[in-house]
Amino acid sequence: MSQAKVPVWVNLALIPLINISLAFLISGLVIYAIGQDPFEAAGYMLYGAFGYNEGIGYTLYYATNFIFTGLAVSVAFKAGLFNIGGEGQAYIGGLGVGLVCLALDHTMPFYVIAPLAIIGAAVFGAAWAYIPAYLQAKRGSHIVITTIMFNFIASSLMVYLMVNWLKSPDSLSLNSRTFEENAWMPYLHSLLMPLGIDIGDSPLNGAFIWALLCCVGVWLLIWHTRWGYQLRTLGTNPTAAKYAGIDTSKVTIWVMMISGALAGFVGLNEIMGVNHSLLLNFAAGYGFAGIAVALMGRNHPFGILLAAILFGALYQGGAEVAFDMPEITPDIVVVIQGLVILFSGALEHMFKDRIEGFFIRRATAAQGK
Question: What pLDDT sits at residue 230?
Fold first, then answer.
């Protein structure tokens, strides 16, 4: 019997590349169908995302949110849990950040506020994920259903809090007051300017550095700790995990809490890093897009980093295309983004069996010689 195996790089690189290429091919056909040059649009998109310093800064700013939500989905998925609640967890995590900044910005310096804001984001995001996790582990409720429901509950809760408690009396919009500057996450361009490094004036801030540290932390957790072994065992075979003495209910709960904490860090980037006030709808779909980022990145932190940069480029490059080619409306840009999500998420395995079969047959033929 043949023991031929599919090369690792096929699943890690080739299949995602084929899916992305097909998404861009169909996107090009859509642009061509409305009478525009797809190659010109691709040029504007690449230039907008990577062609100048400020564009790169915006790309990495968007990517920061995708890193957090992609890691959140990945950690849960490794344990066999499909966390669809990243949007709500990011929302409530941002509430934690905002409350810390509003409470301390008049009295505490940045080096005190920043770690407390990180803790606030993690605690609030984890707490919002705890309830669906508990219901799954102790009551048998399905994690997909409960996390989706909690997205809507988070949205309603934020509206109630902003309208009745947190809205600034000096503003007509549903925003809190602006934080004092000592509660602002520093912009990277201001940090690097004294070193003679010009990265342009963009909203890229210190949350990006924290996102990179989270990538390293997740990698260490999953592949280099006893807890990571329990997590992966549960995701691979829950029955075997029980026979091995692993408390699957406990693992389910703490894994989901870590996932929620990671999603909550979106608030660091949006609330503390850019808007400098608590407001509605700052999550802006990042939680849902994080599902595609995790799938495209094969649930590995390095792959998620690359996928997040790609999605950041789509957001920033898409804005450039809509500006330089007015015939391509923002709705068309959303279609392009949706096609990438579709082919990297829902249709991820469309060519998987055929491609793997080709390499298995090739390896088997080579063994038979």
Answer: 96
